[in-house]
Amino acid sequence: METLSFRFPAGQAPRLRAQVGCVGSGDLEVLAEPGESGILNIQVVTSVNGSGERWKALFERMFAGANPPALNVDIHDFGATPGVVRLRLEQALEEVADV
């Protein structure tokens, strides 16, 4: 098990929280709650040791030039593929969006 932490610039904190996915074979869980304005904090607990660069690259692609909401995001990973990771993150971001 490995714990990774990432921090990105963000906009304002949303009012809502989200929980998407589940920890299980090939999947992951994303928990998102309002964070400090201007900061997106992501913590990943993964069963795949040595995958920090893959996570970093995925987050940088997702948030480059974007203005994500200020969140504290906890990700519990059980070997999910990058496509599943992106899907779950997008689902969480959609759920916390003020519509």
Automatic annotation (TrEMBL):
Pfam families: ACP. Keywords: Cytoplasm, Phosphoprotein. The keyword Cytoplasm applies. The modification O-(phosphoribosyl dephospho-coenzyme A)serine is found at S25. The keyword Cytoplasm applies. Covalently binds the prosthetic group of malonate decarboxylase. It is found in: Cytoplasm. Belongs to the MdcC family. Subunit of malonate decarboxylase, it is an acyl carrier protein to which acetyl and malonyl thioester residues are bound via a 2'-(5''-phosphoribosyl)-3'-dephospho-CoA prosthetic group and turn over during the catalytic mechanism. This is Malonate decarboxylase acyl carrier protein. The lineage of its organism: Bacteria, Pseudomonadati, Pseudomonadota, Gammaproteobacteria, Pseudomonadales.
